[in-house]
């Protein structure tokens, strides 16, 4: 039986800089990310941590800056793979994620992290297009307001974009119940 990997996208301290990003949604996202991480580690299932290495000079996610570091919720993580990326998809990072997953016979993954409608959604779409069984842990993601669109609206649109096309959208509670 194939294992399901947990892929945590861009869970970085730089996203705590409200002056840079603006208002966010889902204040419980980090607790859900941590719950997923803990469950995967307890079961010794594969964990992948991805970080965004921004090339923008004003970004808090630039390498070498404190904002590039993982958030405290990932303290104690024992990932099977850690790598950086400079674009919105983890499949286009410093490591060939597709090859890494396929080499291990992994055909499904649960996805969580930051930002819902950018790096998380893009990775889910690419994963679906590559034939993976993708589960999107919506409540273990968050995003920020954009001009004319609230973070909550973006959150709902991402769920609608992904559902039944690229991924199965589930709550952390439902995902964890399926592990038992």
Automatic annotation (TrEMBL):
One Gene Ontology molecular-function label: hydrolase activity
Keyword vocabulary terms for this entry: Hydrolase
Domain Isochorismatase-like: 4-173
Superkingdom classification of source: Bacteria
Record InterPro entries: Isochorismatase-like_dom, Isochorismatase-like_hydrls, Isochorismatase-like_sf
Keyword Hydrolase in annotation: yes
Keyword Hydrolase (UniProt): yes
CDD domains assigned: nicotinamidase_related
Name listed for the protein in its UniProt record: Nicotinamidase-related amidase
